[in-house]
Amino acid sequence: MRYLWFALIPGLLWMMGGSDADRAAPPEKVPSLRFVDLAHSAGIDKFHDVSGGPAKNYILESKGGGVAVFDYNDDGWLDIFLVSGATFEEMENPHAPHPHRNKLFRNNGDGTFTDVTEAAGLGAWGWGMGAAAADYDNDGCTDLYVTYYGKNVLYHNNCDGTFTDVTQKAGVAAGSWSTGAAWGDYDRDGYLDLYVARYINFRRAEVPGKGQSVVCQYKGVPVQCGPRGLKTQTAILYHNNGDGTFTDVTNKALGPDVAAYYGFTPLWVDVDNNGWPDLYVADDGTPNLLYRNRRDGTFEEVGAIAGCAYDRDGLEQSTMGADFGDYNHDGWLDIFVTNFSDDHSTLYQNTGGGNFNDVTEQAKLLSVGWNNVKWGTKFFDYDLDGWPDLFLANGHVYVEADRWGMDTGYKQHPQVLRNQQDGTFKDVTAELGEDLLQKHLGRGIALGSLFNDGGADIVVNNLDDTPSLYHCPTPTNAQWIVLHLQGTRSNRDGLGARIKLRAGGMEQVQEVHQSGGFLASNDVRARFGLGSSTVVDELEIDWPSGLVQHFHGIRSQQILRIKEGESEVAPERMRRAGSNHLTKS
Amino acid sequence: MNHLAHRPGLSKWKGSLWGVVFCLGLYALPWGQAQQQAPPPGSVADQLQQARDILQSHDLPEARRILENVVHRSPGSAEAWLLLADTYSQLGTEGEAIRGYETVLKLQPNSPNALYNLAILQLRRNRVEEAARYLEALHRQRPRDRDVLFPLAHCLFLLGRTSEGQQAVEEVMNTAGDSASVYLKAGQFLLAHGKVEEALEPLGRALNLTPGSDESRITLALAESQLGHPARVIELLQGHPKMDSPLYASLLGSALCDEKDFERAVPLLETAIRQHGEEKLPYLQLAAGYAGLSKGQEAVRTLQQAHARWPEDVRIRSALARQLFHVHDPVGALVVLREAPETTLTTEELGLLVEGYAGLNRLDEARRYGELAAQRKDVSESVLIALANVYQLEARDPEAIALLEKHRTKFADSPRYLFTLAFSYYNQGNYSLSNDLLGDVITRDQNLAPAFYLRGSCLSSLGKPEEALPQYETAARLAPDDSLYHFQLGMVLSLLRQKDRAEAELKKSLELNDRHAPAHYELAKIYFDSSRDELARQQLEEAIRVNPEFESPYYLLSRVYARLGRQEDSATTLKHFKELQQKQREAERALKEASMGGQNP
Question: What pTM, to 2 d.p., does this model score?
Answer without folding.
Answer: 0.74
